[in-house]
Amino acid sequence: MEAPMEAEGFILWHARDDADVDEAVAEIRELAERSEAQAEAMERLPAAPYPQASVPRDGFAYKAVQRRGVRALYLRAVRRQIEYYFSDKNLKQDWFFQEKILEAPEPEWLEMRWLLSCPRIQDVHCASLQDVLEALGPSTLKVKACHGTHWVRRKKPLPQLKESRPAKGQEPEWYVRLHAVADAEGAAADVPSAEVVPAEAAGIAPAAEEDGLRGLPPPKAP
């Protein structure tokens, strides 16, 4: 793993790949078991007749590693969810994202605000722009910033759509509401919409696998 750095009041731990995350989890478990064993040993000791100097224990190390591990697991869940949105499986039926990816002024790139306004990114993971940018660090997806706006794209061409776009005037209600909000916002950069977005809003796209981390919030400041 890369060295942690202080940002926004808590530790950010950069995991390069899933092996790094698994390593962090194993370290957390080892320290937790060691801390429990030490606590049991201390309880078995007879009470001293005089005050004892405090002895450093692994509790602080365990908490530090735990924060790193939780952050790494959280970022992996966010990354996997976004990678699912850009997968062939989703884009073959997600006409909304396909439409946005092909839009000017950046064809083949999806503006970040559409990802940030997805229910599973905005409501379940409570992910900020910084969280998403960090989560996509080890991803094969490309990220760029242009005039204060962030964009994401996949390397492969878009797959052929299997779900046709509804005729104009027959779009689902969530699509009409979303575009009403987008029109009001104009060209504001990286402003997450309060409305639901793409195919998952219409009940098409399932949630990505998250290793049991559904709803896991970002780690708070110690």
From TrEMBL:
Record-annotated HTH La-type RNA-binding domain positions: 68-162
Keyword list, A-Z: RNA-binding
UniProt KW DNA-binding keyword: no
Entry superkingdom: Eukaryota
Entry's transmembrane regions: none
Gene3D superfamilies reported in the protein's UniProt record: Winged helix-like DNA-binding domain superfamily/Winged helix DNA-binding domain
Keyword RNA-binding: yes
SUPFAM superfamilies per the UniProt record, alphabetical: Winged helix' DNA-binding domain
MF terms in GO: RNA binding
This protein's name: HTH La-type RNA-binding domain-containing protein
Organism field: Symbiodinium pilosum (Dinoflagellate)
